Amino acid sequence: MSMNSTAAPGLGHGLDISGTTPTPFSRLVRVEMRKAYDTGSGRWLLISTAILTAVVMAIQLAVGISQDDVFLTYNSFLTSTNFSIGLLLPVIGIMLLTSEWSQRTAMVSFSLEPRRPLVIAAKLVVGLALAVVAVAIALVLATICNGLYGALGDDPVVWNAGVAHTAAFVLLQVIGMLTGFAFAALLLNTPAAIVIYMVYSFVLPGLFELGAQLMDWFDRIRPWIDFNYAQGPLVDATMTGKDWAYFAVSGFLWLVIPLAIGVWRVLRAEVK
Amino acid sequence: MTLDLGSTAPTPFSRLVRVELRKSWDTRAGFWLIASIALIVAAAEIIVLAVVVSQDESVALGDFVGTAAFLTSILLPVLGIMVVTTEWSQRTAMVTFALEPRRPHVIAAKALVGVALTLVTVVVSIAVGALCNALYGILQGGADWTFGWDDFSAFLVTQVLAMLGGFALAALLLNTPAAIVFFFVYKWVLPGLFEIGAQLIGWFSDLRPWLDFQSAQEAVWEWSSSGKDWAELVVSGILWLVVPLTFGIWRILRAEVK
Amino acid sequence: MIEVQGLTRKYGTFTAVDDISFVCQPGRVTGFLGPNGAGKTTTMRVMVGLTPPTSGRVTIGGHLYRDIPNPGRHVGVLLDASAQHAGRTGREILEIGARTMGLPGTRVDEMLELVSLTASESKRRLRNYSLGMKQRLGIAHALLGDPSVLILDEPANGLDPAGIRWMRGLLKGYAERGGTVLLSSHLLHEVEQIADEMILIGMGRIVAQGDKKTLLAGAAKGAAHSFVTALDNQALATALSAKGITVASAGEGLRVESETVEIGRTALEAGVVLTDLRSGEGGLEDLFLELTSDTQREAMA
């Protein structure tokens, strides 16, 4: 085994750090991006999301063409991503963060970059970038499916895509990713974060609905605390001033607070 | 030289079950899962009690029990999943299968633990429900102790089936996050999709009862159902329980444990 | 240079590290020695900012770890070779480290060659690595940034004898070129052969420090004893007993409460042929066990 012929490390008692530049943020982002897909589980999660998106749209297309009473538009193809991207993007957001803990790589990540806020911010940027990529894939697939629908079906093809709709769609996916990320930061545990996210997105809306029907006072405060409900008008891109207020308050509750507590926790945590 | 095995009894199944039961709650993850189930149930019952008392609504024992049971049914299967998958994620399967190489016994013990925990939570749900109903009686001056035993036994069966569904997915995937995602999709998203599909497509509406395990479980709720309902339950059950469980166990038995 | 000043780390009522201070000099290999659970790993984790200290501080080359820009280029760290994603290949793990530090990809090949991981081994996922392979990868990761300070927790763990010898040469060479090396171990023999300086820790406290000679000189000298084997043990034992020297049988030979020179003289006078004669002084091992005896798990005989 040969000794490596590297330059002699500096003599003397002090460490000369004047020639070293701090790790630039862009490099952290690139490294975190790579870490998102270089493991078997990470790659499969990304591929499954893309495949599921395509499969759901293909089924939708097949139903639309074969059934006369089903009428589809460009937007209905986009809405179907609720069952693909909407489902898995938050899981991607969760695993970006929690896998550092479950696989104990946080020890290495934080010893190579002790400025932990930068590492978390880099992961957040990666999450947002993945959300944008997912949106781009969804838009392309929806365009293809709607084109095929027009070509193969009897119904007239409707391209009801507007800037507002697209922006709302991007915002929705970004929120999904951020919610997963926030729960992950809060819990730092993959199964717990996924369970909480699933309960939050599938079970809680039903409970809120039930509560609102039973109690008048709850019905009045619900829009302020139910983040899923507050996102409703966003889907149709019909947000009013009041809707934005609901959105901001409930989003603060479900996004900002867990994220803030979570980040505070990561910054102080003993990394094992 | 051969080992003298004459005086060593094989590990009895009951001991495996006791050990697996202990392993389900002696880690922080398991403990917190069970603790959160208890906390969520307690919080929900207090809310329900406060609401019905303040709104002057009339409720019966069955409503309180139902609340507790609904909430446990969300998280309990996660415990069933983790009983299986943590052996892989934490690599304890190496130890477990070294101490008991008869892997089917270990898997059976785990399944039994899942079912036992389900029964325990159902009993706890009833106890909590009775307590709340008694409190309701004190506060409102009189409680309604009506409780549908038919519904209860149906609930018990569907809970066990839900737990086994999680268990089967876990055995198939041997990966905690994947199994949890799949389970929630199966339990909460799929029924909606089946419903939409059945409304839109004629032939799918005919096929659906044979595919949709959860709607087929309606048969359990109405004991007087026809033979066809039961046949649908069996067919969809094979699809969602037996097939994944068989593949999963086959995989565990053959897997190189790392 | 690593400087630990009055470092304490408590977990509730348990004190893992109790007010310790020491210095690791450049150009020297410092061995950090102690029984299991003595506080070695906790101390090293505080050094690199993964564990916040309860009180006290650690500086590396005069800086707190978190104030060192791109610390991988200055301080090489190996705390736990298994703390890597099981689903990444060995090469990918180094690749990510190199990218974080802003190093060219060629550095990864250099490091793989340095630790003798073959191209096909480097393409395997970490979950399929043996303990020794993980350890080699961990050492490669620590050396990636060509740091002038190395902090290695149990680096010889799982290495085969050839690997341990290679690592000794590597670290000695590193120190000779002016680097600071701190390595921990619970195996004295391992540290003895490589460390210029030793810090002995037990139950979170430093029980002794210095180079090998100082440590041995400072140790209380017990009554000398030797081990001897002769062609005729019985005759030798009789001759020694006649001089009033205590003899007991030990293994194939005898344990004699005397200096070796006295035994040699007696053998010559008695005309007995010796096949083995050595001093029974336990050296550092005795000292180590003695110093940490209050803190050992097993009661000392």
UniProtKB/TrEMBL annotation, chain A:
Membrane-spanning residues: 44-65, 77-97, 118-144, 164-188, 195-215, 244-267
Name of the molecule in the record: ABC transporter permease subunit
Q: Which domain of life is it from?
A: Bacteria
Keyword Membrane assigned to the entry: answer is yes
Q: Which UniProt keywords apply?
A: Membrane, Transmembrane, Transmembrane helix
UniProtKB/TrEMBL annotation, chain B:
Q: Does the keyword Zinc apply?
A: no
Record key words, sorted: Membrane, Transmembrane, Transmembrane helix
Q: Where are the transmembrane segments?
A: 31-52, 64-86, 107-136, 156-174, 181-204, 233-253
Query: Superkingdom of the source?
Result: Bacteria
- Give yes or no: UniProt keyword Zinc: no
The protein here is known as: ABC transporter permease
Species assigned in the record: Nocardioides mangrovi
UniProtKB/TrEMBL annotation, chain C:
Q: Which Pfam families match?
A: ABC_tran
- ABC transporter domain sequence ranges: 2-228
Q: Which domain of life is it from?
A: Bacteria
UniProt source species: Nocardioides mangrovi
Q: What is the name listed in the Swiss-Prot or TrEMBL entry for this protein?
A: ATP-binding cassette domain-containing protein
Tell me its family. Answer: Belongs to the ABC transporter superfamily.
Determine if Nucleotide-binding is one of this entry's keywords.
Answer: yes
* UniProt entry keywords in alphabetical sequence: ATP-binding, Nucleotide-binding, Transport
Is Amino-acid biosynthesis among the key words of this record? no
Q: Could you state a single Gene Ontology molecular function term?
A: ATP binding
